[in-house]
Amino acid sequence: MSAIESRRHRKPIRLLVVDDSALLRKTVARMLEDVDDIEIVATARDPFEAREMLAAERPDVMLLDVEMPRMDGMTFLQKVMQHRPMPVVMFSARTEEGGELAMRALEIGALDVVCKPGGSNKPLDVKERLVDAVRAAGGARLRTANTPVDSVPAPMVTERRSGPYKRSIIAIGASTGGTEATNQVLRTFGPEDPGILIVQHMGAHFMAAYAERLNANHRIEVKIAEEGDIVRPGLALVAPGDRHMGVRKQGRGYRVHMIDTEKVHHQRPAIDVTFNSLAACARADAVAVLLTGMGQDGAQGMLAMKKAGALTLAQDQESCVVYGMPRVAAEIGAVDRVCGLTSIGQQSLRAAAQ
C-alpha cells in the first residue's frame, strides 16, 4: 500500500490552531482545506482559549504560535508538556530571535517548527512544510522525559576507540525529532574523530540557530556547510537550508559542494542527495547514519552507500520519534546495524574503525 493510499484509510489528524492573528488562522484553514487527512477541529486566539479547546475537542496535534498576548507560546508549550503531553508544531516568524526560540521549543518538546508565510517564504512552500510537519506529528512517539536533552551531562567514554580510523566520513540524516537526536549523537564525538556531515530537514530560516546550538553544546566544531569546506576530523558540517549538499574527492580528502537542483522527496536539503554523492565518491570510506523522521528520504541513498562498501546504521523503532525513514531503509535491505539512540554514536565510531 502506498503512502497516499495508507493516509486515505486512516482517520484525519485532528488539528488545533492557536494564533492571535485572525488572518493567520484563516490562512492556515485555506492552506489545509484540500488536505483530506488533516482536519482543523478548533482554533484559538491565545493559550487560555486553547486550554478550553484541548479539553473539549481532544485534538491529535496542536499548531502553536510562538508570540501571543496574555501568555506566550513558549510558556504554554512548557505547561502542555508538563501536564498534557501531545504532539505540537510551532508556528514561528522569520527572525533571528525566531530561530533561537524555535530551538528552545524543540528542546522543550515541540516536534517541528514551521516558518510563517511572508517575504520570501511563499505560501505554497509553507503549506508543503506545514502538511509534512502535521502528518509527522500525527504519527509521532512523544519523548517521555521532561528534561531537555541539553541538560543531561555528556557521557564519559570509558573505552578507547579502535583507532586509527579506516573511514573518513560519518554522514547523518534526520527529520522529525532529529534536532534532539543529532544533539544526543554528537555527544559521543571528539576532535580526533572522523569528519561529520549532517542533513536535517528543517526550515531554512532556522538552520543557523540549529548549527549554533550544536556548536555550543559539543566538543567538536559545528557550522553551516559552505562551498569548498574540507571534511576533516573534529568538524561537523550542516547542510544549509534550501540547498542540497554533495561531496567531491580532492586528493586524499573531501570537500563539500552545494547543489541547487529541485527538491527530492519534497526536501531540500535531501538526505538521498548527500548519501548518493558519498556512494559515488567516498564509497567504502564512509559511514551512513539514518535517524528518526517521516517518509523515505535517505533510504535509497543509504542502500547505494552500502552497495559501494560503506557501513550503514539506522535508529531503532523504540527510540525514534517517527519511525519512517529508518523503517524504509531496513525494509529495502540498506541497514547493516540497527541501534538505539543512546548507542548509535558509539556504534558509528566503531564502524568507522572497521
TrEMBL record:
GO function terms (MF aspect): phosphorelay response regulator activity; protein-glutamate methylesterase activity; protein-glutamine glutaminase activity
Protein EC: 3.1.1.61, 3.5.1.44
Residue ranges constituting the Response regulatory domain according to the UniProt record: 14-131
CDD domains: CheB_Rec, REC_CheB-like
Domain (CheB-type methylesterase) ranges: 164-354
Keywords associated with the record: Chemotaxis, Cytoplasm, Hydrolase, Phosphoprotein
Localization: Cytoplasm
Keyword Ubl conjugation found: no
GO cellular component assignments: cytoplasm
Pfam families in the record: CheB_methylest, Response_reg
Post-translation changes: Phosphorylated by CheA. Phosphorylation of the N-terminal regulatory domain activates the methylesterase activity.
Modification sites for 4-aspartylphosphate: D65
Gene Ontology BP annotations: chemotaxis
Catalytic activity: L-glutaminyl-[protein] + H2O = L-glutamyl-[protein] + NH4(+); [protein]-L-glutamate 5-O-methyl ester + H2O = L-glutamyl-[protein] + methanol + H(+)
UniProt-annotated catalytic positions: S175, H201, D297
Protein role: Involved in chemotaxis. Part of a chemotaxis signal transduction system that modulates chemotaxis in response to various stimuli. Catalyzes the demethylation of specific methylglutamate residues introduced into the chemoreceptors (methyl-accepting chemotaxis proteins or MCP) by CheR. Also mediates the irreversible deamidation of specific glutamine residues to glutamic acid.
UniProt family annotation: Belongs to the CheB family.
Comment, domains: Contains a C-terminal catalytic domain, and an N-terminal region which modulates catalytic activity.
Name assigned to this protein: Protein-glutamate methylesterase/protein-glutamine glutaminase
Lineage: Bacteria, Pseudomonadati, Planctomycetota, Planctomycetia, Planctomycetia incertae sedis
